[in-house]
Amino acid sequence: MGRSARAKPRRLGAKLKAIRLKRLGFSQTEMWKALKLKVNYSAISQYERGKREPDVLVLLKYAKLAGVTIDDLVDDKINLPKWKG
Hints:
434 Repressor (Amino-terminal Domain); 5 helices
């Protein structure tokens, strides 16, 4: 018996990219350093392109850096605040 695919937020990657660029103005390497990730810095690109999903603790770090909640990140019905950039 196969397992059905787990539901994933469709807008998560775009939201993570918006946080990095519009809210923080960071490069991917700067974001990786700010998040203090134990994985390769290329993970940031993979998160933003939807090729890989960050774990919940990484999402919490993103949310804290941006001043939003995890709900704001994972709920496709919620838009992030408007930031300049």
